[in-house]
């Protein structure tokens, strides 16, 4: 008997909560109690494991799990041949190359022959090798930003979100090595059944992500105002127009951007629309 399909989620850190939230929205029932490291999801008939984010790509590469949520930076640093199935839109950050504010370095080429401290040595070496620049990569874990101050390196390559940590430590960015976010990944060599589950999981997660920025708008409009009302709607596609039992009236349904709802209500009402209803969307498959 084959083992259950396995999905790994981060057990802690900034990607933990949004990953669990997305999994639940996709129908993967998980309860977080801080102790259980695995749970069975009956709806998908899969096993959900909780692991350290840095370990997840290795689990996928070793075949311990079929799919997982991890940072693209972690996937690339691991050097595994796990496949990225879907970008997830949270956990966005950058692997940034930075030097001390007083450093004469202005561009990447100026670092030729210098030392670069980083917690991502494989990605950093690959970046400089691709650029044809010879540097000494100094692998450190924690407090990477202190390296120039301690004269342990002339530059750092570190993960940042806003860049505020760099500024507070007297550093300035020189170049971006990598743009990262959370991704759904899959191990190579999935069999046909596992591939089908992985594709279905990716499709449902993508539908959840697509729905978050949209709203379903329903309204009634007199035939005399129908053309104006339709022209006001910047929907995903052409709106659906249905005749009402009441003569001279039509119902109009459309999917619109969430941010546009506030801007649309006044003009729609002014054009003659009535019974305007705005609903959240749980899943959207374009």
Compact summary:
This protein is an alpha/beta fold.
Assign the structural class, choosing from mainly alpha, mainly beta, alpha/beta, alpha+beta, or little secondary structure. alpha/beta
Strand percentage: 25-35%
CATH class of the largest domain: Alpha Beta
Low-confidence stretches: none
Order of neighbouring strands in the sheet with most strands: 2-3-1-4-11-5
Query: Alpha-carbon distance between the termini?
Result: 37 Å
CATH fold annotation of the largest domain: D-Maltodextrin-Binding Protein, domain 2
- Please identify which CATH superfamily of the largest domain we are dealing with: Periplasmic binding protein-like II
- How many runs of DSSP E, i.e. beta strands? 15
| Total domains | 3
Mean pLDDT: 92
Specify the CATH architecture of the largest domain: 3-Layer(aba) Sandwich
List the keywords.
Alpha-Beta Plaits, 286 residues, 5-stranded mixed beta sheet, single chain, D-Maltodextrin-Binding Protein, domain 2, alpha/beta, 15 strands, 6-stranded mixed beta sheet, 3 domains
Structural commentary:
- With 286 residues, the protein is an alpha/beta fold.
- Helix content is 28%, strand content 32%.
- The protein has eight helices and 15 strands.
- A hairpin with a 4-residue loop joins strand 2 and strand 3.
- It starts with a strand and ends in a 6-residue tail after the last strand.
């Amino acid at each position: 008997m084959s083992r259950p399909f396995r999905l790994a989620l981060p057990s802690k850190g900034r990607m933990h909560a949004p990953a669990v939230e997305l999994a639940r929205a996709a129908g993967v029932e998980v309860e977080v109690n801080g102790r259980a490291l695995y749970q069975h999801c009956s709806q998908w008939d899969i096993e959900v494991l909780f692991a350290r984010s840095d370990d997840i790509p290795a689990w996928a590469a070793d075949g311990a799990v079929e799919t997982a949520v991890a940072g693209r930076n972690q996937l690339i640093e691991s050097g595994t041949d796990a496949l990225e199935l879907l970008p997830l839109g949270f956990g966005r950050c950058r692997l940034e190359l930075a030097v001390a504010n007083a450093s004469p370095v202005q561009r990447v080429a100026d670092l030729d022959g210098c030392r670069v401290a980083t917690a991502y040595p494989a990605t950093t070496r690959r970046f400089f090798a691709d650029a044809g620049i010879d540097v000494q990569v100094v692998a450190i874990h924690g407090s990477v930003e202190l390296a120039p101050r301690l004269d342990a390196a002339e530059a750092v390559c570190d993960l940042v979100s806003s860049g505020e940590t760099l500024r507070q430590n007297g550093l300035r960015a020189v170049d971006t090595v990598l743009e990262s976010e959370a991704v759904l990944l899959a191990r190579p060599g999935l069999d046909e059944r596992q591939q089908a589950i992985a594709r279905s999981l990716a499709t449902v997660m993508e539908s959840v992500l697509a729905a978050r920025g949209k709203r379903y708008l329903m309204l009634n409009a007199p035939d005399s105002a129908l053309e104006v009302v339709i022209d006001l709607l910047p929907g995903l596609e052409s709106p659906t127009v249905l005749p009402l039992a009441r003569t001279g009236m039509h119902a109009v349904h459309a999917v619109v951007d969430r941010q546009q709802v506030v801007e649309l209500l006044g003009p729609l009402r002014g054009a003659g629309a009535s019974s305007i209803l705005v609903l959240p969307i749980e899943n959207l498959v374009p």
